[in-house]
Amino acid sequence: MSIGIIGLGYVGLPLAVAFAETGDDVVGLDVDPRKVEAIGAGESYVEDISSERLSTVRERITATTSYDDLAAVEAVLICVPTPLTANREPDLGPLRDAARRLAGVLRAGQLVVLESTTYPGTTREQLVPLLEESGLGAGRDFQLAFSPERVDPGRTDFTLRTTPKVVGGLTEACTDRAVALYERVCDHVVRVGTPEAAEMSKLLENIFRSVNIALVNELTILADRMGIDIWEVIDAAATKPYGFMRFDPGPGMGGHCLPVDPFYLSWRAREFDLTTEFIELAGRMNQQMPYHCVERIVRALNEAGKPVRGMRVVLLGVSYKAGVGDVRESPALKIATLLAERGARVAYHDPYVPELPSHDLRSAPFPEVLDGADAAVIVTAHPGMDWEQVVRRVPTVVDLRGVTRAIHADSVTRL
Ligand SMILES: NC(=O)c1ccc[n+]([C@@H]2O[C@H](COP(=O)([O-])OP(=O)(O)OC[C@H]3O[C@@H](n4cnc5c(N)ncnc54)[C@H](O)[C@@H]3O)[C@@H](O)[C@H]2O)c1
Questions:
Q1: CA distances (Å), origin 276, targets 6, 79, 199, 234
Q2: What's the pLDDT tens digit per position in 59-84?
Q3: Looking at the DSSP assignment, which residues form a beta bridge with residue 102?
Q4: Are 19 and 2 in contact (CB under 8 A)?
Q5: Three-class SS state of 143
Q6: What digits encode the pLDDT tens for the residues 6-17?
Q7: I need a labelling partner for 116 at 20 to 30 A (CA). Which of 89, 164, 236, 276 fits?
């Protein structure tokens, strides 16, 4: 088959590689010429795809910035960003732009699938009219479906192939086409009756995580006040073999998904006279976590007889999750800002993030970064980090991820 992919980021590039690995010809399109160049050179910028893996299928992937190159493909997958505006409302700008430009080259018989996370109704109400500017009818001349992407950057136990893929087409025939397409790269494809059901299923998954993370974070703040070790509590609760799912506390939510996607649904819900209380509450709770973490850092320094002002505070990990270099909405950024506002001299080490231009900082090498540190804060539990050395070398350690639990030292404060 020949498959076009619009948007070659965390979602689009792994899809491009997966289809190319099954022997399909892929046309990858991005508005960012640097990404197009990198793919042409066989250089991956997404951690889950090594440059070696990309290079082996480079012949089958044509990277381009021109929509004209999509005219000849059989199916087009749209994987562009769906961020929020400054007013925290859905920003469908990239999606509408991609759809409008695709309409300019759309041909009868093509299948279009939207993968970007969005509110229920987007495929039918936004994509259909834009794509029909081509003069072709959706569900009649071309097929259209929504299939949410479930990639979890950094995860190795489940892959694109082993993670079931949900598909909902505009018509039965649209679903059939999309199911057949994804069965090339996924072992299990799940049909739902409408694009709206597929759109909302993705939001349910993300809201489920957001709410549960907020719940455990709230209980963490309470446990701190009550002098109870929350990790011990969670370990104990997690021994229940049914009816409980473990979520660990942390410095807050980051990435493109959890801090953003739930608000697509709360925005849409207002049109139906409903305020989605759980979503709003979870968002508020998780946004508070960086403030709580800074309070814990200030307290830990105070216990060591030190003010914050003038102290060297080293953040270990600044990306939003372990094993990836994505700093979008990372709570580490807020923590760094709040510490700097209080006069701390902030430094950081993150093997995945060489620089933080927003804070005018560069990653310092490990373990040298620990030299002269008054406090080290474990913000992201990247694999391969030597936490014992951190505890040995730094007088005050604040662990926001629970990775030092096996290390017994009075100098360590855990969330
Ligand atoms: N990152 C994840 O873990 C993840 C997981 C599941 C779903 N999603 C969803 O998938 C979508 C894409 O997310 P991502 O993380 O891959 O984003 P990303 O920012 O990594 O990649 C998106 C790419 O689209 C390109 N782009 C922007 N506007 C474009 C346009 N008009 N035409 C062509 N290309 C354009 C950008 O240059 C970028 O390379 C979002 O809706 C996101 O919510 C992301």
A1: 32, 27, 17, 27
A2: 999 999 999 999 999 999 999 999 99
A3: none
A4: no
A5: strand
A6: 999 999 999 999
A7: 276
- Name the CA radius of gyration of the chain, rounded: 23
* Centre of ligand 1 from the C-alpha of residue 78, in Å: 9
Structure tokens at 56: 């082996």
SS3 35: helix
Closest CA to 293 of 200, 380, 369, 356: 380
Mutate to test the pocket of ligand 1, among 256, 319, 330 (most ligand atoms within 8 A of CB): 256
Q: Are strands 355-356 and 361-362 parallel, antiparallel or unpaired?
A: antiparallel
The structure's pTM equals 0.93
Kindly give the residue spans of alpha helices, DSSP state H, lying in 183-276.
195-226, 230-237, 261-270
Q: Which residues of the chain have pLDDT under 70?
A: none
- For ligand 1, say whether the CB of 380 is within 6 Å of any of its atoms: no
pLDDT digits (tens, 9 = 90+) for 288-313: 999 999 999 999 999 999 999 999 99
Residues paired with residue 52 on neighbouring β-strands, in sequence order:
none
257 is catalytic: yes
Is the alpha carbon torsion for 16, 17, 21, 23 positive or negative?
positive
Tell me the helix, strand and coil percentages in the chain, rounded to 5.
Answer: 40, 15, 45
Distance CA 347, CA 369 (A): 8
Distances (CA, A) of 168 to 15, 113, 124, 139: 18, 9, 11, 12
